[in-house]
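Design request, tokens follow.
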């Protein structure tokens, strides 16, 4: 198998929000790398800086110090190589556009022919299982379907990295399971490099090839855990594996330690 190359490099990233009421150190010192084609989940105690990290990765926020590098070049602003899917799908879709129109919109900034654009849009809408809804408007769709549209929009853009910030936090459990399986399927069939932030420990273990556990403030990487579950996963058998339970218990324990400020990692073996 060919060796995977480093796609994303984060070195000594620090982010302080300055405000009239005082400075907030959202990220203390975070370093990690991600290879092309990986699916990395990020978990950590509430308020530890997960969203801030994603915004720095996507170039939406400048770091106070440190470096974010994509393909060997520093990220200095919103990068066309990245697409972001947020939790609030309702606010990220344009209600006056159809599903097709929403998926197509960001592609208008790319130099593509009409035919190339159409192919990408059709392919992305099919990949998320929504061809029957292509002419509908977002407000005619369920929450889970709207989030599928947001995912289709992101993958049609063909980003080098797909960044997802708690994308399923606002949907019901059954829909969430379906959307998790969609992310796994897109990852295995298209090898899209993905950084996925979640509050949900089980979700991080079910989805990830690696789980980055962040510490409490001042935020660091508490543990970078390889998820050694078989790549073919499904909601029933994978979650019933003894290894799944061991890994989720381990991540839970690490987050409890993070809350208490205990940094030393314990092995998941
Ligand atoms: N624009 C801002 N100005 C000042 N402080 C901010 C700003 N955005 C976030 N913070 C603070 O930075 C810290 C990290 O916030 P962030 O939203 O990144 O954490 P999080 O881990 O994503 O939180 P949660 O798990 O609750 O979603 C928090 O203390 C938060 O209050």
């Amino acid at each position: 198998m060919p060796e995977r190359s480093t796609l994303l490099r984060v070195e000594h990233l620090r982010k302080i929000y300055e405000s009239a009421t005082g400075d907030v150190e959202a990220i203390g010192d975070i370093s990690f790398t991600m290879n092309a084609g990986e699916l990395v989940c990020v978990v950590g105690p509430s308020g530890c800086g997960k969203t801030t990290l994603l915004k720095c990765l996507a170039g939406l926020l400048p770091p106070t110090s440190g470096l974010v590098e994509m393909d060997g070049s520093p990220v200095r602003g919103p990068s066309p190589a990245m697409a972001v899917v947020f939790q609030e799908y309702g606010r990220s879709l344009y209600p006056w556009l159809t599903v097709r129109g929403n998926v197509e919109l960001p592609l208008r900034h790319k130099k593509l022919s009409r035919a190339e654009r159409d192919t990408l849009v059709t392919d992305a809408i099919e990949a998320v299982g929504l061809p029957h809804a292509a002419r509908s408007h977002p407000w005619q769709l369920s929450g889970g379907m709207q989030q599928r549209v947001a995912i289709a929009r992101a993958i049609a853009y063909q980003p080098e990295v797909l960044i997802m910030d708690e994308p399923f936090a606002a949907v019901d459990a059954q829909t969430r399971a379906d959307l998790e399986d969609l992310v796994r399927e897109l990852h295995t069939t298209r090898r899209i490099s993905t950084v996925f932030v979640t509050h949900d420990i089980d979700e991080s273990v079910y989805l990830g090839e690696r789980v980055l556990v962040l510490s409490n403030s001042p935020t660091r990487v508490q543990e970078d855990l390889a998820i050694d579950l078989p790549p073919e996963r499904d909601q029933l058998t994978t979650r019933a594996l003894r290894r799944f339970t061991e890994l989720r218990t381990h991540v839970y324990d690490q987050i409890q330690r993070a809350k208490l400020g205990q940094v030393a990692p314990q092995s998941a073996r």
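Comment from the thread starter after seeing the answer: thanks! Residues 36 and 184 are 16 Å apart (CA to CA).
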